[in-house]
Amino acid sequence: MYSLEDLNPEQRIAAETTEGPLLILAGAGSGKTRVLTYRIAHMIDALNVAPWNILAVTFTNKAAGEMRQRVVDLVGPVAERIWIGTFHSVCARLLRYEAEAFGLHRDFTIYDEEDRRALVRRILNARDLSDQDYPPRAVAGQISRAKNMMIDVETYARQSGADPHKRQIADVYADYEKGLRANKALDFDDLIVEPVRALRRCPEILEKYRQRFKYVLIDEYQDTNRPQYLLTRLLAEEHRNICVVGDDDQSIYQFRGADLRNILDFEKDYTETAIVRLEQNYRSTARILAAANAVIGNNLDRKGKKLWTADADGDMINYAECGDDRGEARHVVTKIEALCRDEGYSRGEAAILYRTNAQSRQLEEELRRGGIPYTIIGGLRFYERREIKDVLAYLRLLVNPDDDVSLLRVLNVPKRGIGNTTIERLVSYGRQQQRQLLDVIVHEREQVQGLGARAMKSLGEFAEIMEALLGAAAPGVMPLPELVEEVLEKSGYLEALRTEATPEAEAREENLGELVSSIAEYASEHGADDEDAGLSAFLEEVSLMTSEDEVDAEGRGQTLTLMTLHAAKGLEFPVIAICGLEEELFPTLRSIDESKTNPGAIEEERRLFYVGITRAQKHLLLASASSRYVFGQSRMMEPSRFVAEIPEHLVKVTQVESRTPSWGTPPGAARRQRWSSGDGKSSGGGSSKSGSSSSGSSSSSRAKHLSTAGYNAPAAKAPAGVHYEMDEGSAPDSNDPLAVGRWVKHPNFGRGMITEREGTGEDTKITVRFGSMSKRILVAYAQLEPA
User: Fold this and answer.
1) What is the dihedral sign for C-alpha 328, 553, 561, 633?
2) pLDDT tens profile 603-634
3) Is 328 a catalytic residue?
4) For residue 773, what is the domain's CATH number?
5) Among 26, 78, 148, 356, which is least packed by CB within 10 angstroms?
6) In a domain, 774, yes or no
7) Is 302 a catalytic residue?
8) Structural domains in the chain (count)
């Protein structure tokens, strides 16, 4: 039995307000699900609303199932007659019921993303359009975006104008729709778009469903797109008993087509709207909520609310400024392990969050080194990702050209117009002649029967690529990181991803950048003369890494969770760590660029950080790296603006040393004063138990520590731009590790002496003589060590 007395005052108002439009602004951890189930139960039990007159829409099948079960638990089996489901499941049900009237086959097939791309690929082939010029994934994405903006084939063709590329895609879109009809199929977008169009065409059917669904409830309203918004308006227009629940501060799916304006402008659509704010939080400590409120308060495009809790203040938020990304991973893992050990948490009660999947590599490697079991939510392990395995296959071919398995993986990756028939003929010839495939392609392709001119041309181009790469892979020709970049460029892999220009392609490119970084680190750790520094040794290490049996964690209780911030939405953990809090990573470079014309780009990134903060129940760990490997280069990073938006009195700051000496730590300290108020107020204080880190007691002392540790320290007793030279017999400045005459070690070029120097700070450049050659180096991006 339930009672509305179980609810707090705001929750109860939301449950009892059943007539007319209602906007429930439900903050993170505010008991939203309980309110919704009590509201539905109250309508059925106390107000005698027929269950079949209620439509409740959620965004996941899991949430729909939980809501249904909770209502059944409250009022009994009668609740089974409520229409509860996701937008897609509810619409599929409606379409099947009304298939004949809507001109559909009742047993239509629903195409998923893979089916959609397969149909697009077939159409492209029929039109003789190359995958390079019209990547199936990208074309399918453009069709999907058009549908989600309610742009039909005719409108799309009209908007394409005279642009030949757009005209071709418009024609593909038209053929795609014909193909769906011929196959008696609908794609995922159609499940929402078709009901909107059909209900507009069939007013009598629209009226039937308006009379049926007298009460409409939409959860996660901030994540609705245009077709979902239009469907909701159509169904609720007559009775106007519509309740939408959402949190504008957690709107993080704009890249999927979600429109924040839907929730922000709800009162414009329904001027008589009642608004209830659920601000009491039952999840997090007061300090965590204060941080979340402070951060999100910097957004302008929001309704406004302030989370609070009756619980205790809780621990300080821990923020670690780490020297580099490996140090960041080590610190975060060590900190979580200490919390589990000292406070009795299981590993399953902790999660590490990051902005992009590519960031998982360092964390995974650190966890593997420590033998700590982990689970990645919403993503494959780093070395199991398709793009990583593709490039590793290229590299294996360079070590072993007879590896036909690797060859078959990359022969048509990226797309080169080498089809299955061509591959079958090559394999057959090689089998008959007892020759390996690469040898056949390079030397004997003309002997293979039945190959067309297009296939021969593509095979010739592939042969040229492999011959060039095999030459580049010869000992001593180029360092490992450069070889991987050569593979990415010559193979056309990077170009194909950039042509695709989708969020998925961007993520895959970031992962490839992480692969280059991992190889650069490997080469750096093994000297040039180390026999384990070669490509073969690296590939062996990776193979052993990925062929290990999964750790038996005896259930999720002992498994640490890794996931992106997007994947974390809706979840909660006692311990949360957020990594990679740096400008151009979080917020992303793309959002920073977009913000010049669209301030909303940064605001969405800030909402994502807010989501991350509010996943934490008891402990929140934040971390950034002063330098991070990006595409094999060590880049200087600046702490994210979002960290500076957290009040200093809530945070305990720790500096964690990098793996390189202090004179080689990255520059940027002079810029890192976003957080500084200049008044020396405490930022958490305390001392670290580890000798490798120290805590700062104020923002000003933190800035001082950084500036004297990095390249912002005085580089020479002369103004910027002064050029220095000396010969090898001159004595270097004993106090300056970058003085002319000093010996340094470079990860690729080995040991050398500084012979020239110019500039100061981040612009410091040195010329180093390595044996018979000299190299001019920008210090900020070189991993130099004292020799």
Assistant:
1) positive
2) 999 999 999 999 999 999 999 999 988 777 78
3) no
4) 2.40.10
5) 78
6) yes
7) no
8) 5
State how far the Cα of 140 lies from the Cα of 781, in Å rounded to an integer: 39
Residues 660 and 529 in one domain: no
Catalytic pick among 210, 615, 641, 672: 615
In the structure encoding, which two tokens stand for residue 545, read together?
Answer: 């890494």
- pLDDT, one tens digit per residue, over 76-116 is 999 889 999 889 889 988 998 899 999 988 777 788 787 78
113 and 95 in a single domain? The answer is no
196: tokens are: 């909107």
In this structure, the answer to whether residues 117 and 175 fall within a common structural domain is: yes
For residues 320 and 645, the answer to whether their CB atoms sit within 8 Å is no
Could you tell me which of 79, 175, 159, 78 has the C-alpha nearest to residue 125?
Answer: 175
The CATH number linked to 570 is: 3.40.50.300
Catalytic residue of the set 18, 86, 222, 250:
250
Active site residue 32: yes
Tokens 């220009």 label which residue?
Answer: 501
Tell me which H or E stretch contains 604.
helix 600-613
Q: How far is Cα 351 from Cα 340, in angstroms, rounded to an integer?
A: 12
- 764 or 342, greater pLDDT: 342
- At 753, the amino acid letter reads M
The two counts, helices (H) then strands (E), for the chain are: 31, 23
- Any idea which residue has 């038209």 for tokens? 174
Q: Answer yes or no: 704 catalytic.
A: no
By residue range, what is the domain housing residue 434? 385-543
Q: Does residue 219 have an active-site annotation? A: yes
pLDDT confidence of residue 292: 98
pLDDT value at position 762? 63
pTM of the model: 0.71
